[in-house]
Amino acid sequence: MKRTILLLFVLASITGFSTGRESRKRQMEFTAQTRDSLMIWDKLNIQSEPRIKELLEQHVRQNKKNNSTNGYRLQIYFGSGSNAHEQATKIRTDFLSMHPDEKVYLIFKSPDFKVVVGNFRTKSEALKMQKSLIYQYPNAFIVADEIAFPDLVNAK
């Protein structure tokens, strides 16, 4: 059980980076936080079975291959019916006009249309965005999803 928890913690830490096209200020804050947290890993002496390291490397390779990892998004629209596509497109366009730095996805999974926002690595990041959008999208909720790697990870 302890190994499972340790494995999950290490996996989350290795692949965990904030996501999305953030504003310049948020990107600078994220870079500073990441740099500080990475320094901690340089000082730690973690001893584990070789199989754990192999699993971690396999997980990282798979995420890089898929260019995605587990994360969260905010769902701001869900609908089906004759005008669902037009309404989803309008909500996506409206959101982009107010938040041009955020990623917005219009997803069709028959017979439903969804509009989801962001590429959040942690639930707390998604919650922060949800709170900032509470007046515009009071029914927005957090959903677990495969998210795109942030540019910071792709550059490595």
Q: What does the secondary structure layout of this molecule look like, with pairings?
A:
Elements: H1 2-15, H2 24-43, H3 50-66, E1 68-80, H4 84-98, E2 104-109, E3 112-120, H5 123-132, E4 141-148, H6 151-154
Antiparallel strand pairs: 1-3, 1-4, 2-3
Helix pairs in contact: 1-3
Summarize the structure in words:
By secondary structure, this protein is of the alpha+beta class. Helices cover 51% and strands 23% of the residues. It has helices at 2-15, 24-43, 50-66, 84-98, 123-132, 151-154, and strands at residues 68-80, 104-109, 112-120, 141-148. The protein has a 4-stranded antiparallel beta sheet. The protein is elongated, with a radius of gyration of 18 Å.
Report the uncertain regions.
16-22
N-to-C terminal Cα separation, in Å?
33 Å
From the alpha-carbon coordinates, what is the Rg to the nearest angstrom?
18 Å
Strand order of the largest sheet: 2-3-1-4
Q: What is the makeup of the main sheet?
A: 4 strands, antiparallel
What coarse outline follows from CA principal-axis ratios?
Answer: elongated
Number of strands: 4
Helix-strand sequence: HHHEHEEHEH
Put simply, the count of helices is 6
Q: Report the mean per-residue pLDDT as an integer.
A: 78
Q: Which percent range describes the beta-strand content?
A: 15-25%
- Structural class designation: alpha+beta
Q: Which bin fits the share of residues in helices?
A: 40-55%
